[in-house]
Amino acid sequence: MTTSVNRTIRERVQRIETMPAIPAVFLPLLRLLNNSVDEVKLDEVVRLISYDGAIAAQCLRVAGSPLFGMAQPPKSIKGAVISLGLRRVETILLTCCLGQAFPAKKWALDPAVFWRHSLGCAMVCRKFSEKLAAADHEKAYMAGLLHDIGFMVNCLAFPKEFAMAMERACQEEVPLHEAEHSTMGFTHCETGRVLAEKWKLADDIIAVIAHHHGVGQSQKSQPLVALVHLSDLLCRTRGLGYGYYERRMVDLIADPAWAILLQEHRDLEGVDLVRFTFELDEAVGEIHALVSTVFGLAPATART
Amino acid sequence: MTIVPQPPVAQPAPNKSAETVDPVYRQIRDLVYKVSGIYKAEEKLYLLADGCARRMKQTDARTPREYWDRLTAAPSRDAELRELLNEITIGETCLFRSQPQLDALRKVILPEIVTEKVKQVTKRLRIWSAGCSTGEESYTLAMNMLEESERLLKGWTVEILATDLNDRSVETAKAGIYGDYALRNTSDLYKRKYFSTVDEKRLQVRPEVKKLIAFSRLNLQDDSKMLFMKGMDLIFCCNVLIYFDGASKSKVINHFFSDLNFGGYFFLGTSESLMKLNDQFHLVHFPGTIAYWKPSLSSGKL
């Protein structure tokens, strides 16, 4: 990417901040998420969540979704933290905050489809990482949730250019990042990275945002980037993609990301990928429901 | 494999809450998967529960737990598991059973095979419907190939071999007469184009579709006959291997692998898995469906 393109991206990302109303708790929360779990105080998280009544109520509703492991919505934030653990509640808060940071609008990319993919990928990343004993499951969730944040940047900062890329992707049935590259000369990976750096996200999350379409190029956290790359591909073949047919065959096990992940997690070898694929289908309905809860978007049927 | 298609008895609403399902059904689901490779997802557990309910009546089991005993204790075990597999796969016998499979076939696989074969100056496509039952899958494939005959497959010869162990199934398949239930997923366009009316309730496949298919009786476990099934581009074998034990299944799959051309694909039923019975096939994903691929020589993935 040329320096001038890079400069344009930076300039336009600067202006994003004035557009959507980012909840007051969002940036302190991101700082909190950068800390290791034993440094984070329970009271601090509870205070952050309770700061915004609407977000607090939404967090409780989300915690009650079967996808987060509770049969009934918990009665208090503290109750949720006790039964779900601090890290998980943090990721729930992050999910809710993102819903507020990017309110539903008419974008080149249908926000309902975008959030289904992001939340779907977050879930798949977590489920996938749960098959690997040494992986950090909540980190995987967070990485999945944020990996495509660059698409939101594109919708806000490059609306016309990105609309053309989206149209091309739908018409030619090619992956969206390929259409972005051929139409705009850059992709959501670059724009997402700029926003992530501005938000001072953790280095491993930045690596995921910047390299989930080219795992080998990542200097850091390759196993996490690989996990998100594979989960993203899985989502796109199981009804949690970008709402159009991607005309391609995906060979996950032959993908270089598989080998990278396997190198770090030997137990990947024992994963029954077909059964895992079928299990993912079980979560699709829940994800649709959750997107309408968190993001206030009416469920609609997406094909892929 | 003969399973005479008939409507399932009672069909409850699809989104029945998972909590209402007796946990024993999850145990049964896991057992069924281990033995047959059929996986009923959580949201489809009610289908499994329905199948079990019908078998519970037949076997006088009063509770799901008692039925679990019938499924796991000798001497009833093997026979009962077979009966249950019949019950849970019965609804899958219809034309146009899996649209994602057909989309993958026409949008991704055919263009790829056509490009590859044109290089070899071959314009012949061979498809095998192994365990064709009463012909629904074979005719679906034939109609889809005919749809491509003016585009991708212009000037090509398409041969569909459809085999089944059961003579009666093969005869039914040859007749090509279907009622509403088998035709529930068939669009009006296809009905008008490829069928003629038999009577008020039934339609018959037209001769130009039948012309593409050769039906015959074949036992997949007959090694000497299996050796002759060479040069396939695509093999479909839906809900047939689920009845085989591990060793026979493995043998049949090895036959399929050697019967396929390089770059060919093997499809199972929509909720069926090959598990780890063959490490030469590559498991591949398409939107909404999976398949097994025999890597092409040019892919460097052999």
What does this protein look like?
The complex is a heterodimer of chains A (304) and B (302). Chain A has helices at 3-16, 26-34, 42-51, 53-63, 77-84, 86-101, 111-130, 137-146, 149-157, 159-172, 176-184, 188-198, 203-211, 222-237, 256-264, 273-295. By secondary structure, chain A is mostly helical. Chain A is globular and about 50 Å long. Chain A starts with a helix and ends in a 9-residue tail after the last helix. Chain B is 40% helix and 17% strand. In chain B, strands 6-2-1-7-8-10-9 form a 7-stranded mixed beta sheet. Chain B has a 3-stranded antiparallel beta sheet with strand order 3-5-4. The two termini of chain B are 32 Å apart. Classes of the chains: A mainly alpha (304), B alpha/beta (302). Chains A and B meet through helix 14 and helix 16 of A and helix 5 and strand 9 of B.
How are helices and strands ordered from N to C of chain B? HHHHHEHEHEHEEHEHEHEEE
The CATH homologous superfamily of the largest domain in chain B = Vaccinia Virus protein VP39
- Multimer state: heterodimer
Query: What are the segments of chain B in which pLDDT stays under 50 over at least 5 consecutive residues?
Result: 1-18
Radius of gyration of chain B: 20 Å
Main sheet attributes: strand count, strand direction, barrel closure of chain B: 7 strands, mixed
The CATH superfamily of the domain at 8-19 and 108-295 in chain A turns out to be Hypothetical protein af1432
Shape of chain A: globular
Beta-strand content of chain A: under 5%
